[in-house]
């Protein structure tokens, strides 16, 4: 008897994955629960265990190719269980265990449900919509020409834009502004005219980063506030207590210290721990403090989240950070640890640079960029003294945060780094 093993549902809203590695070949004997391939979604990687047993007679999944839930992965002959019963086997919750995907609310990666196109809309015909409707569409990152109009003569109304946005949000993510896509299409066809090129398909992390960054950059009015903190004392502290943190399994880095400081900063400045809801014209202030930390991996940028940092010590944060960054780099990050950030920190200082302007990670309202701390001459009490100065750059959503508040927020972080005891004054 031959049975097909089909890709099971791995997590809510994940209906498509990319096969990164096949772990079995035709002729192999597979057992139930044996991992048969590695896959990745745009946020996590995992092994997929077989739900059938027998000899592999055919493999239909291909490395590097997308696979949808229900697609046949392989055919086995023998005493295999019915493919319909396929379910990911329960994974032990070890640190090095493969990602446990089931029942985790995941960001939607499904294709947008087809939306009925408005009748007789020709691409170069201007869409009938009032300026206020166009403005709303622009603000929430929707191309008004994508919205089916229900008003007289196919006119697009405010309600049409809102329901289109709600549907897009439910189906995938808000629609993206089309201009950058058009620009990159043009440049890719032009590229071959001037010499040899190599075209490599984007992996899922790159695709997701590209979509998110375009969305963020084209819909959020960013401003970046720069400042510098004297971390000479922090460096002394790191040297003094580094071993203790190492013994606990972490690394006492500037990132870990900043993550902890941010918990207090975000409580003091709640607009930095908020999201804007343009449709409802509301701002959501979050009462939990989850910090996303940008991690550089060979798949691209991943942002695992340290949750409830206000309840954790610097040592706990340092250990968690170290483990999360390692898991992200080893493709073992769990989907649930990539979600729920209320604020993000991006530290490029380990690599170098004097400053940069980070892009906000929607739906957050701000992101803190950290560049390389360097010894600089600082004029103190009538003389230059060598001090270690850490450049900070805070990008913020100017719809939610005013410039003066951004300056105060960064100053607060600077003061906390320079005078940590000041934290005890009113906290
Ligand atoms: N200034 C000077 N030195 C710094 C520093 C800074 N701002 N930040 C880190 N360093 C040093 C550390 O002290 C460490 O030095 P030692 O090895 O001598 O102790 C070294 O750089 C490496 O640090 P690390 O990377 O191990 O630890 P971290 O906690 O500082 O950073 C992480 C962790 C995950 C943030 C980092 O590894 C990383 O991936 N950074 C890149 C983030 C990124 O890609 N951002 C861009 C997002 S937008 O595209």
Structural notes for this entry:
The chain is of the alpha+beta class. It folds into three domains: 2-107, OB fold (Dihydrolipoamide Acetyltransferase, E2P) (Beta Barrel), CATH 2.40.50; 122-199, E3-binding domain (Dihydrolipoamide Transferase, Irregular); 206-425, Chloramphenicol Acetyltransferase (2-Layer Sandwich). Helices cover 28% and strands 23% of the residues. Strands 9, 12, 15, 16, 17, 18 and 19 form a seven-stranded mixed sheet that branches. A four-stranded antiparallel sheet has the order 1-8-6-3, with no helix packed on it. Helix 6 packs across helix 7 and helix 6 (254-268) packs across helix 8 (403-418). The longest helix has 17 residues, at 232-248. The protein is globular and about 85 Å long. The N and C termini lie far apart (69 Å). Residues 82-123 and 172-179 have low confidence and may be disordered.
Radius of gyration from CA coordinates: 25 Å
* Count, helices: 9
* Named CATH architecture of the largest domain: 2-Layer Sandwich
Number of domain modules: 3
Task: Please state the structural category.
Answer: alpha+beta
CATH homology-level superfamily of the largest domain: Chloramphenicol acetyltransferase-like domain
Question: Distance between the terminal alpha carbons, to the nearest Å?
Answer: 69 Å
Tell me the helix content.
Answer: 25-40%
- The percent range for strand residues is 15-25%
| Tally of strands | 19
The major beta sheet can be summarized as: 7 strands, mixed
Summed over residues and divided by their number, the pLDDT gives a mean of 84
CATH domain topology of the largest domain = Chloramphenicol Acetyltransferase
Which of globular, elongated, flat, extended, rod-shaped describes the shape?
globular
Low-confidence stretches: 82-123, 172-179
Q: In CATH's first tier, which class of the largest domain applies?
A: Alpha Beta
Bound molecules: oxidized coenzyme A
N-to-C SSE string, H for helix and E for strand = EEEEEEEEHHHHEHHEEEEEEHEEEEHH
| Assembly state | single chain
């Amino acid at each position: 008897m031959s049975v097909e093993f089909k890709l099971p549902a791995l997590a809510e809203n994940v209906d498509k994955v990319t096969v990164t590695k096949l772990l079995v070949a035709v002729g192999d004997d597979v057992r139930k629960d044996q991992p048969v391939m590695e896959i990745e979604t745009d946020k996590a990687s995992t092994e997929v265990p077989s739900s059938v047993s027998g000899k592999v007679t055919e493999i239909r999944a291909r490395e590097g190719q997308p696979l949808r839930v229900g697609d046949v992965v392989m055919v086995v002959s023998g005493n295999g269980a019915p493919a319909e019963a396929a379910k990911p086997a329960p994974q032990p919750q070890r640190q090095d265990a493969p990602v446990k995907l089931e029942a985790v609310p995941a960001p939607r990666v499904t294709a947008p449900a087809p939306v009925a196109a408005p009748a007789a809309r020709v691409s170069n015909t201007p869409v009938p919509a009032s300026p206020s409707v166009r403005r709303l569409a622009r603000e929430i990152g929707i191309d008004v020409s994508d919205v089916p109009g229900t008003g007289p003569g196919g006119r697009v109304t405010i309600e049409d834009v809102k329901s289109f946005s709600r549907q897009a949000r439910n189906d995938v993510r808000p629609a993206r502004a089309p201009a950058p896509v058009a620009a990159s299409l043009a440049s890719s066809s032009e590229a071959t005219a001037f010499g040899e090129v190599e075209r490599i398909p984007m992996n899922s992390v790159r695709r997701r980063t590209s979509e998110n960054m375009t969305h963020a950059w084209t819909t959020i009015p960013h401003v970046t506030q720069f400042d510098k903190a004297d971390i000479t004392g922090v460096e002394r502290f790191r040297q003094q207590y580094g071993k203790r943190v190492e013994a606990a399994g972490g690394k006492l880095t500037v990132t870990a210290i900043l993550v902890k400081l941010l918990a207090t900063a975000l409580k003091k400045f709640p607009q930095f721990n908020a999201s804007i809801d343009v449709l409802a014209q509301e701002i959501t202030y979050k009462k939990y403090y989850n910090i996303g930390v940008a991690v550089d991996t060979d798949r691209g940028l991943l942002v695992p989240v340290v949750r409830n940092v206000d309840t954790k010590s610097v040592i706990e944060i340092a250990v968690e950070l170290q483990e999360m960054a390692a898991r992200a780099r080893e493709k073992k990050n769990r989907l649930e640890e990539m979600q729920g950030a209320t604020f993000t920190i991006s530290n490029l200082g380990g690599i170098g640079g004097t400053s940069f302007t980070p892009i906000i990670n929607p739906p957050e309202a701000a992101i803190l960029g950290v560049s390389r701390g360097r010894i600089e001459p600082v004029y103190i009490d009538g003389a230059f003294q060598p001090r270690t100065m850490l450049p900070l750059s805070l990008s913020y959503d100017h719809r939610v945060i005013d410039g003066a508040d951004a300056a105060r927020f960064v100053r607060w972080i600077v003061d906390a780094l320079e005078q940590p005891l000041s934290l005890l004054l009113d906290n």
